[in-house]
Amino acid sequence: MQFTLSFTTLLLASLLVLNVQALPVRRDAGMITLPLKRIHQARDDIHPQMLLQQHINRGQRRLARMTGRQAPSEEQFQANIHNRMFLMPSGPGSHTPSKRYNRQGSKAPTNQADAGGIAAGIVAGINAAGGGSSNGTTTNTTNTTTTTTATTTATGATPSGAGFSQVDLTALENGGLTPAGNPSASNSLGLDIEANDVGYIATVQMGTPPRDFKLLMDSGSADLWVGAENCTSQGGNCGPHTFLGPASSSSFVDTGKQFQVTYGSGAVAGDIVTDDISIAGLALNTHTFGVATQETVDFSASSVPFDGLMGLAQSTLSQQQTLTPVESLAKAGLITEAITSFKISRLADQKNDGEITFGGLDTTKFDQATLTTFANVNTQGFWEGAVGSIAADGTDLGLTGRTAILDTGTTLIIAPATDAAAVHAAIPGSQSDGQGGFTIPCTTTTVVSLSFGGTVFTIDPRDLAFAPVNNNDLTGTCVSGISSGQIGGATEWLVGDVFLKNAYFSTDVGKNQISLAKLV
Ligand SMILES: *[C@@H]1O[C@H](CO)[C@@H](O)[C@H](O)[C@H]1NC(C)=O
Ligand SMILES: *[C@@H]1O[C@H](CO)[C@@H](O)[C@H](O)[C@H]1NC(C)=O
Ligand SMILES: *[C@@H]1O[C@H](CO)[C@@H](O)[C@H](O)[C@H]1NC(C)=O
Ligand SMILES: *[C@@H]1O[C@H](CO)[C@@H](O)[C@H](O)[C@H]1NC(C)=O
């Protein structure tokens, strides 16, 4: 049982996390990028053997459909992939997930007719290309409601150099959420930890009567959505999630307009609606957002421990072309500034003190003397800062003129290939897997740092070891938390939770500024 769960979780993790090439497409004027094309691009986040099996599975599904025969069961598809994983040179998990839920979406459609066609086309296309991923309704091998109970085996924070932590391994295998403690500031929500620091999730209330929805808090996109009551996914329903619609909310109003968002992995399409939402007790009545009537399995699977996303980049990126919740809160005068601040926590620390604060910063979470504020250099609406220097154990690697998109919705750090190679060259024992990924010793003590606004922010070496290559060898080889991929320009990094766990991170829409500070 444990065995199955472990492989399934790894599999789902690989499927959920994205393509490193999936950097959000810029909203270039008049250009619509059809993500369908991207599906067929060489992807470097999934092991070729697994990808091969996904292609085989997909072919079997297509053939079954074409000939009117019954496709093999989901179990058979999963088993095929498991079998294939045994064939991999270094076993399951040898090539791991890069980034999650980062948009690569197309420009918002300019008219409704197009919206329907594009949205349906994209979702249908992605579903058809869905590979070995499962149905969402039939997937039942992992338990969404599982709360990681790793505490019992925890021995407190693992010291750097001790190897991959047992706590993280348990979470990696079981998925689910580790709930945050109570927030320490007003206008704040706890940030639950998904699996082994894969994503960060807060609970907000939506509809009348208000019900709890779990939302992935994503500084790298700008749309809020949850599943619609009539949500479908690959012909099935959208899994064991909480949905919103006219049957469950008397204040729900469908505007009749449509939206679609394509992320690095997964896509949603649906209707733009208004309804009442409440965030940390701040009531946003008739807020405009989306309900997804179609989700790819990346969101509908029972292993996905959230009901939707809250995008907290700037609304210039919004496919729904509406204000983000923090912008709406500021506009309504419920908070004074459109500031969003993140304290994301590291599962291995067992503090569960993750928190998102709206309208300000929680000064109890960081060392105020280290608070560093710098300009957002991105003109599309992402949060991107100039990187002063990149160093390993204090030695400057000479990578100048770099910028970094700071994205809570991305798990790892994705660097341009030559930069990723330069960083790993400074980590003793690291190896390239030849496909953009790297392995490092799970026991590495090398401290990689990035500087912003003149302040050096170090990455705890524990965070560099993202997952063990062999779950039975936690002091052996680990998959590096820094991977490579084409992001934007040759000097642009995508910096996710591997880094952000090490800093207090705050964004300010009004001033178009980013702040980072060292944690206390
Ligand atoms: C799904 O999981 C639950 C709880 O583990 C179990 O009771 C149920 O039988 C499972 N359903 C299927 C279809 O496997
Ligand atoms: C999920 O796991 C939790 C904790 O182990 C358990 O209480 C719950 O019954 C499980 N739910 C399902 C559907 O299996
Ligand atoms: C699904 O729900 C949405 C949102 O309420 C609605 O606009 C749409 O018409 C519904 N679709 C069907 C097929 O009922
Ligand atoms: C997906 O789930 C639905 C609902 O249980 C089922 O009818 C459908 O056959 C499933 N599709 C696949 C491909 O398993």
What's the CATH H-level superfamily name of the domain at 14-42 and 176-343? Acid Proteases
Give the overall shape.
Answer: globular
Name the bound molecules. 2-acetamido-2-deoxy-beta-D-glucopyranose
| First-last Cα distance | 40 Å
Quickly give the structural class.
Answer: alpha+beta
Q: What level of helicity do the residues show?
A: 10-25%
**CATH fold category name of the domain at 14-42 and 176-343:** Cathepsin D, subunit A, domain 1
What proportion strand? 25-35%
**What's the average pLDDT?**
76
Provide the CATH architecture of the domain at 14-42 and 176-343.
Beta Barrel
Give the count of helical stretches: 11
Number of strands: 30
Q: What is the CA-atom radius of gyration, in angstroms? A: 21 Å
The major sheet is characterized as: 8 strands, mixed
CATH class of the domain at 14-42 and 176-343: Mainly Beta
Give unreliable regions as ranges. Answer: 1-69, 79-157
Family: Belongs to the peptidase A1 family.
Biased composition (Low complexity): 135-161
Protein name: Peptidase A1 domain-containing protein
Region (Disordered): 89-112, 131-161
